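Cross-posted from the bioinformatics board.
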Amino acid sequence: MSMLELKYDIPGDDFTRAGEASGDVKQKLKKLGYNPAAIRRVAIAMYEGEINVVIHGGGGEAIVDVDPDKVVILLIDHGPGIADVEKAMQEGWSTAPDNVRSLGFGAGMGLPNMKKYSDEMEIDSVVGKGTKLRMVVYAQSPKA
Amino acid sequence: MKVHDIIEVLDAEILVEGDLDQELKTACGSDMMSDVLAFVKDQSVLLTGLLNPQVVRTAEMMDMHCIVFVRGKRPEQLVLNLAQQRDITVLATPYRMFTACGKLYKAGLEGGTAI
């Protein structure tokens, strides 16, 4: 049974707001008394994903499902899609424009970080249509 | 080490005052937020020359208590407001990144475990 379902629009044109959704999820999980180590992993994984939706996806949405034993994060954008997912998973591989680097991102660490902090991660991306990214973080995880 | 020790060691100015008695374990110095996010364990202080709101967001996601802007830089009010809402202390030091990190390390603040 789901404890909480949260939905967010992620604006694509305002980098200063990137992270609002992740910050809100973090606050709500704290209020629920969720395991702090799991909260931190949810926050970081979702934040990197949210940044990607802004940088690459031109905005999109986030749907977060909170269960007592796990948090499922779904990030959806209608951007250009990822042509080579395997390459995108490599540390240091980035297609982000230079102006993103001046903001502290775009070093090719986003997807590797998301994989590191989530217990499960699936990418469903179609070039020209967009990307769906699903991450699961367990409340009690060997990664914590 | 506590936040007020950092203020002393770095001759820092307080831009946002959180809990100055907060105990700090380790620090991280970087302008690349994804690198900060790559090492999750108990980092309490972020030293950076980057001035955008994502610095505060990154500190928030990592449960950090203190942000130090190096080289006398000051972010705009929007960034400070965000830190205030999150109870994160924000400091500005005149020292450059390398010197600021070195001073804190010498004073006993460590960088945490290696990769």
